[in-house]
């Protein structure tokens, strides 16, 4: 009850007149939806006549979510990244005491279709929604952004193009690279970001989010669209902390078979791959899209981007106040930037089907079939992927161009890595590891022998220098001893017969100075 009162008091209240102009160009109309701190109105562009959506939020909010959305749209526009599935921002600025952002008007959210209309999506539609969302996430992650709030409420078809799914509401978006283009460090106790029902296990445990968490939230969203609910949807508790604790226990204890019941086994492989990613590891988006496309082919469907027949009735702008077209959570902090009037509009990127058709038309001669063209394209993508990988290993910070990694092998015509191939890969990897270990032991033994030989030579040189010094010292000592040795009286007596008599006569006079110097006592006559 208090939460509803808080929302009613805190939501923007516009004048009764619906003819208010935003930026003297967009005339406000009926209300499309409302969230925690913002309201969405339908408006018409007086210059072009297009129908747009205007989102209003109080400017006095300490953590405005519109500033976050504006920062994301501005950086994507400056990078000329026109990602299919990301709404186009037309204006951001002040409107009285509110902040306003003008976006493309979209259809109803997928959550509205499931909850209010009691509809469920077929497996074909769920897989195609997953493929399109993977393209959107790959573009966002390539430019350094994380959505961090992927759920059915933020996914909706285009108003005029029901074949394209749009990912909206970037109020909780964040960057996973710093100003030096380095991946942020993993942190703990950062709190839960996003919606509890669709957030990843890392977010529930209070860890820092990365690219893998957006993919995990996408997997929960696909399960919700197919099942109509999740195993922990009916969890109730008193207080937000108790609810988060119970939902965390339910998510941790739920097996993938229970979560992906009646769904293709590729969904289990999707979760296993995503949950096995490291914090700063770049996902292989092409491999994940290949899994979904293989599931489509196994069920006998084509990737024609044609959803349910009743989807067209929800793509037009016929929503009412009871069925909001957009859903918004509480805003979070993000740095506010300067305001540009008009963002640059780059050329749209051609979809993969158009690229394939152009390559087929350019094939020289009738002998080049479409399979040959696809094989050439696959080899080219493989070469570019390996080139970028080697460049990243050498220290490159950012690969040139868009990194579309290898998605499928046209020579095989089926999903790679079957049970036999996995066994052969394991055996091949075991042999390679043994060969690497043997090479490492060989190099280590060679280095050890070199160190031993070096130590032996050093010891020999040391002993040689020591023996040479000892010999020189002994030789110098012998020379000094020969100089200072005195003649004994016995030798004088043997050479001089009168020695005893002269000894008594010369003893009184004593030795001469020369005798003292030469060491001879009886030299003076």
From TrEMBL:
Residues 26-379 form the Protein kinase domain. It comes from Chondrus crispus. Transmembrane segments: none annotated. Residues 455-490 have a biased composition (Basic residues). One of its GO terms (molecular function) is ATP binding. Keywords: ATP-binding, Nucleotide-binding. This is Protein kinase domain-containing protein. ATP binds at residue 55. PANTHER family: CASEIN KINASE-RELATED (PTHR11909). It comes from the Eukaryota. InterPro entries: CK1_Ser-Thr_kinase (IPR050235), Kinase-like_dom_sf (IPR011009), Prot_kinase_dom (IPR000719), Protein_kinase_ATP_BS (IPR017441). The keyword ATP-binding applies. Pfam families: Pkinase. Residues 336-368, 389-525 are annotated as: Disordered. Residues 390-454, 491-500 have a biased composition (Basic and acidic residues).
């Amino acid at each position: 009850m208090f939460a509803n009162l808080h929302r009613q008091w805190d939501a923007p209240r516009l004048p009764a007149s619906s003819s208010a102009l935003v930026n003297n160009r967009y005339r406000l109309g009926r209300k499309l939806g409302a969230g925690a701190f913002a309201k969405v109105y339908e408006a018409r562009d007086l210059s072009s006549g297009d129908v747009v959506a205007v989102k209003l939020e109080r400017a006095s909010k300490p953590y405005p979510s519109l500033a976050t959305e504006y920062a994301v749209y501005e950086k994507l526009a400056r990078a000329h990244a026109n990602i299919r599935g990301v709404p186009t921002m037309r204006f951001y600025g002040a409107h009285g005491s509110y902040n306003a952002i003008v976006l493309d008007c979209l259809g109803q959210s997928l959550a509205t279709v499931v909850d209010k209309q009691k509809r469920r999506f077929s497996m074909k539609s769920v897989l195609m929604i997953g493929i399109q969302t993977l393209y959107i996430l790959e573009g966002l992650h390539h430019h350094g952004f994380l959505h961090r709030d992927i759920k059915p409420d933020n996914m909706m078809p285009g108003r005029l193009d029901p074949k394209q799914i749009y990912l909206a509401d970037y109020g909780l978006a964040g960057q996973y690279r710093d100003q030096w283009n380095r991946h942020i460090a993993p942190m703990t106790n950062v709190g839960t970001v996003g919606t509890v029902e669709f957030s990843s296990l890392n977010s529930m445990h209070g860890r820092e989010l990365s690219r893998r968490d957006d993919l995990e939230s996408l997997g929960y969203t696909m399960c919700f669209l197919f099942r109509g609910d999740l195993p922990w949807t009916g969890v109730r508790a008193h207080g937000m902390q108790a609810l988060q604790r119970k939902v965390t226990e339910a998510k941790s204890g739920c097996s993938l078979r229970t979560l992906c019941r009646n769904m293709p086994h590729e969904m289990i492989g999707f979760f296993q791959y995503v949950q096995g990613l490291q914090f700063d590891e770049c996902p292989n988006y092409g491999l994940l899209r290949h899994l979904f496309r293989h599931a489509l082919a196994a069920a006998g469907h084509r990737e024609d981007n044609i959803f349910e027949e009743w989807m067209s009735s929800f793509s037009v702008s016929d929503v009412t106040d009871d069925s909001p077209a957009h859903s918004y959570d509480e805003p979070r902090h993000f740095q506010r930037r300067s305001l540009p009037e008009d963002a640059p509009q780059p050329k749209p990127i051609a979809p993969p089907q158009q690229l394939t058709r152009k390559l087929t038309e350019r094939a020289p001669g009738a002998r080049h079939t479409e399979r040959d063209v696809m094989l050439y394209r696959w080899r080219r993508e493989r070469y570019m992927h390996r080139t970028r990988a080697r460049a990243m290993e050498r220290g490159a910070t950012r690969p040139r161009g868009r990194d579309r990694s290898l998605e499928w092998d046209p020579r095989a015509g089926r999903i790679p890595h079957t049970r036999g191939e996995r066994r052969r890969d394991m055996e091949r990897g075991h042999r390679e590891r043994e060969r690497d270990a043997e090479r490492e032991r060989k190099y280590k033994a060679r280095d050890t022998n070199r160190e031993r030989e070096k130590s032996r030579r050093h010891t020999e040189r040391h002993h040689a220098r020591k023996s040479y010094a000892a010999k020189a010292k002994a030789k110098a000592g012998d020379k000094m001893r020969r100089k200072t040795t005195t003649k004994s009286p016995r030798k004088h007596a043997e050479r001089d017969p009168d020695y005893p008599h002269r000894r008594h006569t010369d003893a009184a006079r004593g030795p001469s100075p020369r005798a003292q110097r030469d060491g001879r006592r009886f030299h003076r006559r």
